[in-house]
What we know:
Elements: H1 3-20, E1 29-30, H2 32-38, H3 43-55, E2 60-62, E3 66-68, H4 74-93, H5 111-124, H6 129-152, H7 156-169, H8 172-197
Antiparallel strand pairs: 1-3, 2-3
Amino acid sequence: MNAAGATAGRVYDALKLCILSGEILPGERLEPAAIADQLSSSVTPVRDALHRLEGERLVYTRANEGFHLPIVTEPGLRDLYVWNAQLIRLIARAWSDGPATRSADALPIDLHRATRAFFELFAARSSNAEHREQVDHASDRLAAARVAEARVLDGLEEELRGLAVLFDHAGTTAVLKGVDAYHRRRLIATPRIVRALYRT
């Protein structure tokens, strides 16, 4: 990889990490020159990264106002939670017979990475590569909300461990019942999660 390619990849990865971790608030303007200074880069790879992130719906542009993080609203976040629940149900219908090839026992220790990895297990059990793409995309768009959930909801690690046990040892119906309860809890808490997203 040439130096320009390495710089572009580094800038994209660093900027995406800032967005997914909730370091940048929803609606905040993203100034390419300021980001370039922070990342010791020129402006061109920053603009390229922002356009790439716009294609992933993690950033958007306003006419004559530059790049911004999307504003998170209660209806919008509810739609994302509902979509994630529907996606998991769709994927479970495509599961091959037999036990999962990957175990939920090996989830990462970090809660946010573990949550993402848990939903990736559903896609890994499907032979359809599009399922993996869509789970990754949904996890990206829910990443900052999942960080905010930890400020609002108690017992998240225990909840995820319980879901992991179901995934490894229970039938599909019980697993989906647990996943539905996971999403219902967040739908009820959506107003508080949105408020937590905007806290500095």
